[in-house]
């Protein structure tokens, strides 16, 4: 009988660990970020169902166009949620859409990016 109670106590304690870790993380979510569904992904807090977008004008290389799209994404995310959520390197579900475009200055690249903000 004693072994059964010890097992039940152990099982209840183990079940509470993920909740406790999640509750600690959720206390860290403040401001406008708190209005979104937040989950833990790869050890960091991420918005589960909310994407942010960044877009750019035309740039001579795809690399520059991507960098400017990321800057736009980070700038808007920083404005809305603060620095903690604006690091594109830790964002989730990143997706680029880049296209070539002809302008009166010659050919170039334009890019758009979407990603779910995560806190660093």
Task: Provide structural commentary.
The chain has one domain. About 20% of the residues have low confidence. With 120 residues, it is an alpha+beta fold. A hairpin with a 2-residue loop joins strand 4 and strand 5. 38% of the residues lie in helices and 29% in strands.
Question: Features of this protein?
Answer:
single chain; 120 residues; alpha+beta; two-stranded antiparallel ribbon; 2 helices; 29% strand
Overview in brief:
This protein is α+β, with helices and mostly antiparallel strands. The protein has one domain (2-116).
Uncertain segments of ≥5 residues (pLDDT<50)?
A: 4-27
Rg, Cα atoms, Å: 21 Å
How many strands in all?
5
* Helix proportion range: 25-40%
Shape: elongated
Separate helix tally: 2
**Count of structural domains:** 1
The computed structural class is alpha+beta
Strand line-up of the largest beta sheet: 3-5-4
Assembly type of the chains comes to: single chain
Average pLDDT value?
Answer: 80
End-to-end C-alpha gap: 47 Å
Beta percentage is: 25-35%
* Biggest beta sheet attributes: 3 strands, antiparallel
N to C succession of SSEs = HEEEHEE
How are the SSEs ordered, and which strands pair?
Blueprint: H1 2-27, E1 38-41, E2 44-47, E3 52-55, H2 62-81, E4 92-103, E5 106-116
Antiparallel strand pairs: 1-2, 3-5, 4-5
């Amino acid at each position: 009988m004693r072994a059964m109670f010890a097992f039940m106590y152990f099982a209840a304690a183990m079940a509470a660990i993920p909740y406790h870790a999640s509750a600690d993380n959720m206390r860290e979510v403040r401001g406008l970020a708190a209005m979104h569904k937040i989950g833990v992904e790869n050890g960091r807090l991420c918005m589960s169902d909310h994407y942010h977008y960044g877009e750019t004008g035309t740039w001579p290389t795809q690399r520059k166009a991507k960098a400017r799209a990321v800057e736009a994404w980070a700038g808007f995310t920083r404005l809305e949620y603060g620095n903690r959520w604006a690091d594109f390197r830790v964002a989730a579900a990143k997706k680029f859409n880049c296209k070539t475009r002809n302008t009166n200055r010659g050919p170039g690249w334009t890019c758009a990016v979407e990603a779910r903000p995560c806190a660093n």
